[in-house]
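job 3f2a | input accepted
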Amino acid sequence: MNDTNPQQEQEQKEKVEEQEQQKQKSASDWWKSTRKTLDQASSTAVRYKQMVQKKIDLAATRKKIDQAHAELGRKVDQARENAAGNPLDQEDVRQVLNKLDNLKQSAIQLEEEIKALKEEKASATDSGSEQ
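job 3f2a | predicted structure (131 res):
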């Protein structure tokens, strides 16, 4: 009986150690899963923030485009009233047209960035649901 007692004690000790290892592994897996979820939520929030900021910038750019259109209309009307010839030949009109071109290019760039963020969000959502 003395031989079985130490053997049983050893088996019991190994069983307890195995259970402890399983508990630690389970806790570790839980922390990894939690961290992964938090990282995904954080990156989603960052993308959302970027998208909202781009949309705000786009709305401001569109407002500036509308203002430039109004300014262009005033300049053309003034040139017509002053019988200054072709309004497109006047420097102030060309400046407004250049400003409009730049604003439109900025708006296109912002729209592309928003689209890219939406596609990135969609791909992140797809890859997140697969895992």
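job 3f2a | Helices lie at 4-81, 91-130.
job 3f2a | closed
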